Amino acid sequence: MLAPLEELTGLGAEMAHTANAAGVRLIWRTQVRSSKWTVVRQGRVESTAAATLSGHGAQVVTTDGHVALASRDDFEPEHARTLLDRVIATAGRGRRLGLQTADAVAFERLTGREIPADPAAFAAVDLGRVSRRLIELEKEIAGRVAGPNLSVSFRSELDAWRIFRDDGSDVFFAMPRCVLGLRATGSGDGGRHGVSATLFSPDPGMPFDDEQVELFLRRAEQSAQLATVLPDAPAHPAGSFPLVIDYALAKGLAHEAFGHASEADGFRSSILAESGRFKVGETVGPDTISIIDEPVAGDHAWQPFSANGIRRERAVIVRNGRLCDALSDPWSAGSGGVRLTGSGRAESYRSAPQPRMTNIRIESSEPLEAAGRFEDYGPGEVRELLASAGIFRRHPKVVYLSGYSGGQVNTAGGDFVFQCKAIYDLDERGVTLYKPAIFSGSMFGALQSVREAFGPLVLDAIGYCGKWGQQVPSSGGSHYFLVLEPHASVGLGGRE
Amino acid sequence: MKLEPILAAIESVAVDGVTVDRWQVHGSESRQLSLGIKDRETGNAHAPLSLAEASSAHYLLVWSDGLVCRGTLERHQDPRDAFGAARATAYEDKDAAHVLGPAEFPEVELYDEDTAAMTGGQTDRIAERLEWVREAIDAANSRTWSGSFSASTAETRMRTSAGLDVQSRGTSYGWFVSVNGEAGDGFSARRPESADAFKARLEHLMQTATLVAEDVAPLPAGIHTVLLHPRVVENYVLGTLMQNLDGSAVAHDESAFDRSGFQSGRASLRKGIGLSIDPLQPYRGGSYRFTGFGLPAAICTYIEDGRLVQPILNVKYARRLDLKPTPVPFGNDTVRFGTASRLSYDAALEHTDVEVLSVLGVHTQDRISGDFSLSAPLALAVAGGSPAGRLRGTISGNLWETLRSDDLQFVDVPHETTPGMRFPCRFDSQ
To answer: In chain B, how many domains are there?
Structure first.
């Protein structure tokens, strides 16, 4: 699976030599991504497929700072040489188009290799066997929750990159990703409603790992139950409320609200920057709260090196309520006034890397205890947790937003939005379910209003981020639950 | 990509005595040039001038034991090895085990020499239009702008074991500009629009950017008459309708529209509302000669006079629903949506409170229930029939109720092929 990249040592050196001879900087990205997936519905296989994405992209920077990128979907040496000549010539004509000249901070020569997974295990994934296993799991879920239409899926992927530079750097890494997924669609008098659940593992054997399967079934069961009751649930009123959000929504808040605004390539318009420079030291939240982004081993968004061949570093975006680090790459760190964190990521060899998040979390320095596993907490248990902490003495009713269904942000204005899977009103009397609604508003208002955190950190809320049209895996989390005070600039969209 | 070596591999491949009975291969070869602009910086390291070459072939194999497999062959792969490996992914799916035969394919104008020249490095037109954008931005004293220009050319050929053999050649061109990270507009088609059309759209964008720079007092929370801009209609309304019309969703009861709705003739939307495509129009972005499963392009109606006519069906789901395959939508500029009678934009504004220019969170909505709750950070208050300044808020409601409502009106909006939609809707200012 990795052989095509292993064989590029000589060609990588030759490409670097050619770039040096032409007097340009070169980052040569080569990639092989191998994926397999299967979907089952109603006791039969709906589709299976195996695919690879492979090729190379040569990004050059001329002596006067013009940049160009060219890509091709093979590793033929002759074509690679031709492509490099072409992209050097194209970059050299940059002045005619009024292209910006790039100004990069210095980055050191690096040789590295991180391949934590066994490529053979990915190659050996037997989709027929996996499909039969998914049919068993679908049957198990249907036995636990009658009614909804179910679809169960599995995807395994090994995404391998080898990056060469003109300075002799040679960085080789492979990112293993496997996801078990469920989609449940329930029907009622009020129409239909769909709810999803996922579980990530770097191990392609996860459909046969009892512990993983048990956790997936637990999540799947909760989603299937929700799908049966949501179609007939009422819509929640709009407005600002005291809120409790789970770790997946907290990941959404960190990612959409603060993560994107701290990406240094956007500092000429980001609300977290002024005159193109990050507002380091500015207070944006309570002093108990920090927001941290870093690659986490065994995680969906783990990436040890940037797509520019630089080691990815931990970035404390908010430290005890104040802005600290930005997510930067060589072309944004200097102008943004921040240190280089090696945050450049790209969807594929065809794309230009940009500063992006990996695993982002909101962390409290004073979390309150929440015993057991996160999956032990249904809305009733969350209500008990809040009651035991005396939250209802402060607010007779708290709105619980459960599950994350994606989000979006405008970094220029600081407006964020994300969607939950369900809303529950919690009070001393009990729990009332409502349909999901958008949670939106000002990023500053949202972070400032975080008051309590319950439980240990859980960082496995996964998704994909689509910045600038490039999809890359994202993930993150927080403590089990965060309590947010009502804030005028943050609200729930509703129907009444 | 040449198909002959692939077809030879299909003819000769055998895995444990199982050979290929039926097949479909769809090869394509493309070149693209693109250029990004981030915060006034044209072609910087994060949005560089990019050239891309790609070649691949999508295939469907039906093996002699009835199992099927699908996949994509990359340029560098040995077809025999790839098909041997693909055999391990084969599964039973009687509905998917069919390929189409020869048919009459329409000639559709999809290829433009000037656009093809751009992909080869002829960048004069892009340079000229970039300059017009820079001049407009400077004239308006705008703080910053971002955007992109792209051009591509592709040749495709499809062959099947049933005798289908058809080719197509097309180009694509597009641009997008956003001002101050907020107001944005763009264009995409098979060839560039005229210089006058480009300048007119750009001028309109700059006027909008000026309007949204001025905040006005929030509206009281509640129901207001809201006009969704065509981009919002395309992004949310058409996106939701297409997902629910998808044959897979209908077949699996994962659509708001059940199978019986397509046969009963009962109205699912308000009388008069239609949804159809015309992929035969010359040089439109959504035009094509044949679908990815080999069906000739043709005008196709999915909803007529509020009644469901047919789902969007490929061969597999057509068989599963016992219907015929249909042409598929490929771009919004070939979609016809709404009622025959429409309000003019000026007339519509006379009785509009808020025009919603863009929304956040479309991908987070539940597409089946139709419940929507969207952030609208870019909206215009309308007073006395004219846009008066910027509002921020959320809109919420239910799309299916809206599309059944007698209060819904479709609006012709200048420069747009998709109509706007005006209807009473909850708007909560922020």
So the answer is: 3
